[in-house]
Amino acid sequence: MRRLHKNSSDLSNVSDENQSVSRDQHTKFELNQSTLTGIIIVSFMGFFAWFFVSVIFRNFAVNLSLWSGAHAKVLDIAPPPTELGHEEDSMASVMEKLQSSLMEHGQKVHSSVIEHEHKPYYSVVEHEQKPRSSSVVEHEQKPRSSDIMHEQKPHSFVVEHKQKPRSLVMEHEQNPHSSFIEHEQKPRSFVVEHEQKPRSFVMEHEQKPHSFVMEHEQNQHSSVMEHEQNPHYSSVTKHEQNPHSSSVTEHKYNQHPSVIEHEHYSHSSVTEHEHNLHFSSIEHDEKLLNDGLFSSQFDKHSCLSRYQVSSYRKQSPYKPSSYLISKLRRYEALHKSCGLYTKSYNTTVSKLWFGSSTKETSDCKYLIWVPFSGLGNRLLSLVSTFLYALLSDRVLLVDRGDNLDDLFCEPFPESSWLLPPDFPLIGRLQTYDQNSPECFGNMLKMKKTSTSSPFLYLHQIHDYDNHDKLFFCDQEHNFIQKFSWVILKSNFYSAPSFFLMDTYKQELHSLFPEKDTVFHFLGRYILLPTNPVWGLVTRYYNSYLAQADERIGIQVRVFDPWVGHFKYVLDLVLTCSLNNNLIPKINTNVSFNTSPRNQKSKAVMITSLSSGYSDKIRDMYWEHATLTGEIIQVFQPSHEEVQQTENKLHERKALAEMYLLSLSDKLITSSFSTFGYVAQGLGGLNPWILYHPKNGTTQNPACTHAMSSEPCFHFPMDLDCKTRSWADTGAVVPHVRRCEDVGWGLKLVNPTVK
After folding, report:
1. Is 187 within a domain?
2. Of 148, 178, 196, the domain-final residue
3. Taking 70 as the threshold, does the pLDDT of residue 582 lie above it?
4. By three-state DSSP, how is residue 164 classified?
5. pLDDT grade, residue 103 (50/70/90)?
6. What are phi and psi of 397, to 5 degrees?
């Protein structure tokens, strides 16, 4: 039993020893595993720490290199060679070289600057005579095609450093004393010159943000670009035509002028050019902004005429009232809020689809203009229709017809004035006439005080009757205001009759304190030629008219030609222009000027369907000398022979010629011609108006001077609105009078004019 117990005890001890060994082995395994994991983690952390430190070190090295280059710029030393990227050089060596160079050159530059202050001009000459004594001068003689060099070398020392990274440092390390002496003898080195002359050409480009180069780069849409097509009104173009007028162009042809030559051009010509360019830009902007007619919310390139036309016109003698400017801004906001496909527009246009049964309402009201007759008539009626839209707070939308959008830019920002193709009445607008049930005059004739029609049609054409003319009576406008949609078809200029209405009298007085400026301002505001038409205007003007000292426009229109009419019309033109000293008389005794006493040049531009008038006048001045010695040139842009209404190219040329006539200094027009009315109104010109020949004879006088630049209203209402009887509407107020060329017509004039 004792043996069994002993054996059992031995087995128990063996088991305990085995378990203890097992635990010890497990513990050792866990310790080994933990140690291995720790070693791995520490290794990774060490690796990332090394990587992070190396990145910081390299960044510090790069920044130190840049810092040393920046200080070298001030101290006139080449920055120490950037050897941080080379493993064979140590950081300590680089720092030692840097500190040594900085200390040596700090002392050197101080003495060099003092020396240069005593000899600023002799050193320039010395520097010019010894261009190879400095690596900088050598660099100027042997430039590299780099971006910095292309910008007129504002940082040439950096380029020099790239070409010779160790030249100056090694030179100063090997012989600092000689370098010091050299700097004393040649204080006109690049950096000293740079410090002593901060307004040199290089620094001028850095310090003057309004210089030519910076202004041209930073302001691509400035007046430099806006005047690009008008070389006769921009100092920039003169600069382009005369490359030696400015140091900027001088550098274009001679990239490395001498210091003295550089001084001469950069200090005088560049400064003068900057001054001219700066004030040319200001003057150009002032013409646009001070007039206030145009909003600044347009893309300049979409309608070049809006921003360039003021450069071609002479300064207007008139200024728009502040009330007119604010009215135009308010109208633009209304046009945007009620424009096409807005909620108000969709609500209102639904009445045209479903009639007045719709219960939805809108505060927006609309006026649709429908074109009729020739181009001149259409433009006159469009301007007077826009005036009515301003007075009645309606949004103007226009039927584009065949080519309205080809001729004119959008006048209102961020919202079109063109009726969309899906407008409900788009196909019927031209069909409405006096007999239409929606016609205003017809409704009055039928005594319809109420109607279920969702729109009203106004027939304002030369054949309108007395009921249609009641549109110009105050008491009828309460009825018109009931309609959200009003369609107006017209072929005349009706603005004078609005000035006879009590409803709009005060508003018109605030808008136009000078009564004879209505078409002048509103026409300039909405009749802006598209880029193709404006191209016709500018190309012709720049080619033939711009160089003349004076421009004379003559517009000839014959409405009822008869056999032999040409001679009488030509006599009218010559008699009017010669008797009023618009063109000089000829010397029939000699064929040349014996002494050029007066070399003043005049450009005479004639517009007519026939080329005969310009040919005769041109031959007259070719075959004979003038009594005054003036040089006369005669031009005619086109001669289409017959009027081609709604022909796209024909009407482009017609509009271009209207604008060319408006750019004249003096103007002759034909009576009853709406073509001439548009030109004189846009130009703000009081023309000489040719009389019609009577009974085949030339009248005397042949023409008369207009009272104002306003067009004539050919078919006004001569009715008393209260009595419905005839009345002389040309004698009601002093600023509405009978026209010079059409005795029954009305026109706006300055009341002080006799």
Report:
1. yes
2. 196
3. yes
4. coil
5. low
6. -125, 140
Q: Verify that 229 and 242 share a domain, yes or no.
A: yes
Distance CA 153, CA 193 (A): 14
* 369: phi then psi, degrees, rounded to nearest 5: -95, 130
With a cut of 60, say whether residue 137 has pLDDT above it.
no
How many Å apart are CA 537 and CA 529, to the nearest integer?
Answer: 9
Q: For residue range 479-513, list pLDDT tens digits in order.
A: 999 999 999 999 999 999 999 999 999 999 999 99
- From the CA atom positions of the chain, what is the Rg in Å? 42
Instruction: Identify whether residues 546 and 690 lie together within a single domain.
Output: yes
Burial class (CB within 10 angstroms; exposed 0-12, middle 13-18, buried 19+) of 20: exposed
Query: 357 and 385 share a domain?
Result: yes
Which residue has 């011609």 as its token pair? 673
Strand partners, 548: none
- Minimum mean pLDDT range among 34-48, 468-482, 610-624: 34-48
- 24 falls within a domain: no
> Do both 218 and 172 map to the same domain?
no
Element (H, E) at 682: helix 674-683
Average pLDDT over residues 268-277: 41
Same domain? For 509 and 536 the reply is no
Could you tell me if 631 and 539 lie in one domain? yes
CB 157 within 8 A of CB 78: yes
- Mean predicted confidence (pLDDT) in 648-675: 96
- Note whether 68 and 82 are within 8 A (CB): no
Cα–Cα distance measured from residue 200 to residue 219, given in angstroms and rounded to the nearest whole number: 23
Q: How much is the average pLDDT of 119-139?
A: 39
**Residue where the block lists tokens 């010397």:** 587
pTM: 0.64
SS3 688: strand
Contact status, residue 573 vs residue 554, Cβ threshold 8 Å: yes
545 sits in which H/E element: none
Question: How many other C-beta atoms are found inside a 10 Å radius of the C-beta of residue 586?
Answer: 18
Structure tokens at 482: 């009931």
d(CA 163, CA 159): 6
496 phi and psi, to 5 degrees?
-55, -35
Please state, in angstroms and as integers, the Cα–Cα distance from residue 241 to each residue in 223, 286, 715, following that order.
Answer: 17, 26, 52
* DSSP-derived secondary structure letter, 167: H
Count CB atoms within 10 A of the CB of residue 6: 10
**Burial of 492 from C-beta contacts in 10 A (0-12 / 13-18 / 19+):** buried
Are the beta carbons of 584 and 577 closer than 8 angstroms? no
Residue 27: inside a domain, yes or no? no
Q: With 90 as the cut, is the pLDDT of residue 553 above it?
A: yes
Domain that holds residue 740: 531-748
| Structural contact between residues 556 and 593, judged by C-beta atoms closer than 8 angstroms | no
**H or E element in which residue 633 lies:** strand 631-635
Which residue from 383, 338, 385 is spatially nearest to 484, judged by alpha carbons? Answer: 338
CB 513 within 8 A of CB 324: no
653 in Cβ contact with 640 (< 8 Å): yes
Q: DSSP secondary-structure letter at 319?
A: -
DSSP of 420-485: PTT-TTTTTGGG--TTSTTBHHHHHHTT-S----SEEEEEESTT--HHHHGGGSGGGHHHHTT-SE
Our CA angle for 632, 636, 641, nearest 5°, is 145
In the chain, the number of structural domains is: 4
In what helix (H) or strand (E) does residue 490 lie, and over which residues does it extend? strand 485-490
Phi, psi of 727 (to 5 degrees): -150, 150
Residues 390 and 480 in one domain: yes
- Residue 85 tokens read as 């990227």
